[in-house]
Amino acid sequence: NWLLSKGLKKGDNVIVSGSNSPEWAAVYLGVLYAGGVIVPLDHALVEKDFITLAKFSDAIMLFADSSRLKEKGIEALGLKEYVALDEGSEWTYVFDLKADEVKAEKIESKDLAAILFTSGTTGIPKGVMLSHLNIVADAWLAQSNMNISENDVFYAILPIHHAYTMLAVFIEALASGSKVVFGKKLIVSQMLRELKEGQVTMFLGVPMLFNKLYAGILAGVKKKGGAAYSLVKGMMGLSGFLKKGMGINIGKKMFGNMILDQVSLKDNRICICGGGALPASTFKGFNQLGIDFVVGYGLTETSPITHLNPIYAYKEDSVGKAIAGVECKVVDPDSSGNGVIYIKGPMVMQGYYKNPEATKEVLSDDGWLNTGDVGHIDKDNYLYLTGRAKSVIVSEGGKNVFPEELEDKFQLYTDIEQICIIGYMVDKKMKIEGIRAIIYPSDEYRKREGDVLKQQKHFEQIISEVNKDLPPYKKISMVTVVSEPLEMTSTKKIKRFEVQKKYKLEND
């Protein structure tokens, strides 16, 4: 009502930007209900980038944390209204807004609902246009096989402006009558406290998060001694066999008090991992512990969910089967069956905002979206990802190597906080690339080992271990240990092309 009283018309764009909160959620829903288009912007953006996107979005109003509103360049945007998502500032607090009832224009399912800016890992932002139909269809179809109910509690710990949390947590919870706990910071100790206090049953995260949790679980068991570790691993093996092979889940009873309660997952029913490759060992381990662990796939351009592993028939190295309503095909497969993945369905975007050229590059006239991802589909229609088409490294003999496939091998090495695999030019004339690992060590390891030369030797040894199991054309031939963190997106993906620019070699 307040939005309409201030002159918001159907189709007007409104920015919301702030940390995860009920206030953020209320603005999102209020704008949609009034017939506007919501533009969620990353609250971690630096002022310059925020203003660039705000101007490009043609928004007429801004709802943001007061720390953003007080920035010098914000007032220069010349918007109709500026409202705070937090209390105690000079700007009006969103929950203090009042207005008489105003009738809104009728909203159609085909109308634009949201513009989501995505930088992916390329650093080039694009505004993905999603209709009400895109969002509602994805929320509805993604629920299959998970039996979500009003008794479930979702946990919003990843940034809510991102398509993954926005749809799979916030919208999905509303669609099923569930509750939402808004997490404050991505700090493990605080996260575990919130999981327990909120009695969370639906925990959605990214690979980095689940890898750290699983590595922490294993480290805790190892501290109890070799015999205890062997016993627990044996029990996990039995539990996993019964769960996957016979549909009998005894893991919660076996490990509830002993392990799951320690990491605040005793109340948890389903964990869902998206936003990148997850090691099969982590996927398998959580299932062995009695958690119904699901790995999925999708893009902002697909609202985002297109694939999920059924909890009753999961494959640890796959990102799952297409959800109802999704068509998926692999185009121009190589000798291994890997090709570019194309998606079609009611959740596929309308296009990129004010960018018909970029839209035409990825979206065909008959609705097929070129995802830019490479992979294959097995005989049971499960999808397997190999990597991004744009990041492929061409090694000697013309063999294609996907960095993501190699990075996956290092996810459980706890001395490595971040690893980015990139190519470097070995023979410019023949266009032959070598494979290089950029490694940022964990805080714990750096505190333990301050000598730079010893660090280099240690990580070269880890690379050698991994190389032993790789074919010659996939072996890593250069290791660079760096002293500062690699730049990441808000969903904890390394910005690969930023890393390539920063650590470019002279002969590249």
What is the topological layout?
Layout (H helix, E strand, L loop, with lengths): L1 H4 L7 E5 L4 H12 L3 E4 L6 H10 L4 E4 L1 H4 L2 H4 L5 E4 L27 E7 L7 E6 H10 L11 E4 L6 H13 L3 E4 L5 H10 L4 E4 L1 H16 L3 H21 L4 H5 L14 E4 L6 H9 L3 E7 L6 E4 L11 E3 L4 E5 L7 E6 L6 E2 L3 H7 L6 E9 L4 E7 L4 E2 L5 E2 L1 H5 L8 E12 L4 E10 L1 H6 L3 H16 L10 E4 L14 H7 L6
Parallel strand pairs: 1-2, 1-3, 3-4, 7-8, 7-9, 9-10, 10-11, 22-23
Antiparallel strand pairs: 5-6, 6-16, 11-12, 12-13, 13-18, 14-15, 15-17, 17-18, 19-20, 21-22
Q: How would you explain this protein's 3D organization?
A:
The chain is of the alpha/beta class and 508 residues long. It has 17 helices and 23 strands. The chain has helices at 2-5, 22-33, 47-56, 66-69, 72-75, 132-141, 163-175, 188-197, 207-222, 226-246, 251-255, 280-288, 356-362, 403-407, 443-448, 452-467, 496-502, and strands at residues 13-17, 37-40, 61-64, 81-84, 112-118, 126-131, 153-156, 179-182, 202-205, 270-273, 292-298, 305-308, 320-322, 327-331, 339-344, 351-352, 369-377, 382-388, 393-394, 400-401, 416-427, 432-441, 478-481. The strands form 5 sheets. Strands 8-7-9-10-11-12-13-18-17-15-14 form an 11-stranded mixed beta sheet, with helices on both faces. Strands 2-1-3-4 form a 4-stranded parallel beta sheet. A 3-stranded antiparallel beta sheet has the order 5-6-16. Strand 7, helix 7 (163-175) and strand 8 form a beta-alpha-beta unit. Helix 6 (132-141) packs across helix 7 (163-175) and helix 10 packs across helix 12. The longest helix is centred in the middle third of the chain and has 21 residues, at 226-246. The radius of gyration is 24 Å and the shape is globular. The protein starts with a helix and ends in a 6-residue tail after the last helix. The model has no long low-confidence stretch (mean pLDDT 92).
